[in-house]
Amino acid sequence: MKLDILAISAHPDDIELSCSGTLIAHKTLGYKTGILDLTEGEMSTRGTTEIRRKESAKASEIMGLSMRANLGLPDAKFDLSFENQLRVIKVLRKYRPEIVLANACYDRHPDHVRAAELIEEAVFKSGLVKIETEDNEGGQLPWRPKKVYHYIQSVSLEPDFICDISAQMEQKMAAIRVFKSQFFDPESNEFDTYISNPEFLELIEARSREWGHRIGVSFGEGFVQRQFLGIKNLFDLV
Length: 238
Ligand SMILES: [Zn+2]
Known about the structure:
Helices cover about 35% and strands about 15% of the residues. The chain has seven helices and nine strands.
C-alpha cells in the first residue's frame, strides 16, 4: 500500500495534538494517510503501554488512517544511530509517502527534537540507492518523500504556513480526548502532569483558533519547514 502522507512522531498522541486536523482534512480530500510512532510513550508519568495502545487505535479510527505502526524504540532513550535511521527508512520505503510530517525541530520534550533529526536523516538517506534494506518481501527500492513539514507542538513556534482545519476541529478534539490516560480525566487518580489539567485542552483549542484567525478561518494548524516552498500558480495559496 502506498501512502500520500505519513506523519511520524516520537510518542503516541504527538500527532493528535499537533496535526491530526490536517491528516483528517487530507483524508477527506481522498489522500491516503498514516502514522508511524517511534516509541510507545512508556516513560510517561500517567497510563501504561497497554492503555496507550488502545487509545492510539481509537484515535486512528477517528482520523480515518490507512495504517498506523509503532517502531518500538525506547522512549526518552532513543538515539540517532544509523540502525535507528534504517528502521525508519524501511517504513518510508514500504509505504512510499509523498509528504512526511515530523516533530518540531525545537520543543520542550527532548525526544521531539531528536525525532525531528532522526526523521530528516532517514528521509534523505531513504533516497540513497547504495543504502540497502529489505523487508519480508525482499530488497526494497529507494524512496525519498518530496517534502518534510514539521508540526508545532508544545513551544509556540512561528509557522511558515497554516492549514485550515475548521471543518475538522471537532474530530481533532475527539481524537485527543481518547487519550484519557494523558489528558484531563476527572475520574483519574494518577499524578497531575503538565498536560493533564483541563486548561491544557483549552490551550490546544485557543492556539488552533489563533492560527485559524491569522488566515481568516475558524481553526488552523501551523507548520514549520526548513526548505523553501515553491509554487507554480499564485492562486495555489489561499
Ligand atoms: Zn511527545
